[in-house]
Amino acid sequence: MNPDWLGAFFIGLAGAGHCMGMCGGIASMLSLGQAQPSKWVPLFYNLGRLLSYALLGAIVGGAISSISQVGQVNNVLVWLRLAAALFMILLAGYIGRWWQGLLYIEKFGQIIWRYVSPAGKSLLPLRKPIHALPFGFIWGWLPCGLVYSTLTWSAVSGSVLNGALVMLAFGAGTLPAMLLAGHAATSLHKLQNSNTFRHIVGLTLLIYGLYTAYGALTLLSISL
């Protein structure tokens, strides 16, 4: 298994509290106009969300891979790996709750979101449970620092498929918190908000980010 997939999964798992905070009002929006909300709506919504992540990862991974191959610019991937390492360090600070600078990056996505969000709102109220699928696909573009950080991993994944799989792994990590209900969700939420858990994940990401940055800087020093 690619270690980046595992890392992306744990980012999604550890950062799911942030996802629930941003998407907390969506559950009520999906139930608007429904006398008895369908149990399939959350499943279709999250499936659409994961498909949008996979598409973003495929686009980014494929585009960067094509540019580096056609232009034969190997240094591009090295610089991008350095950028990915810096995002990992920012992400470590966010998950460990040491510094929230990653949230400022989300503001850049608001520009695109202004044009995308009306398409999602036009689907409400949902006429059929399956309509939650395109709604989730659109809502997957909601500005999110966690998504942007993981996309940098897709950028250096080397292919369309690997880029998509990195983002799918991230999305899979967010699923337990988004799908579970009742006591299970409460227990998971407590784990995600545990300082010990967050510090362990944050420290792991910090070490991995520093290691990746060191490797990228070493390659750059050799090529210069």
Automatic annotation (TrEMBL):
The keyword Transmembrane helix applies. Pfam families: DsbD_2. InterPro entries: UreH-like_TM_dom. The keyword Membrane applies. Keywords: Membrane, Transmembrane, Transmembrane helix. The chain crosses the membrane at residues 6-30, 50-70, 76-95, 130-151, 163-188, 200-222. Residues 8-211 form the Urease accessory protein UreH-like transmembrane domain. PANTHER family: HEAVY METAL TRANSPORTER, HEAVY METAL TRANSPORTER-RELATED. This is Cytochrome biogenesis protein. It comes from Vibrio galatheae. The lineage of its organism: Bacteria, Pseudomonadati, Pseudomonadota, Gammaproteobacteria, Vibrionales.
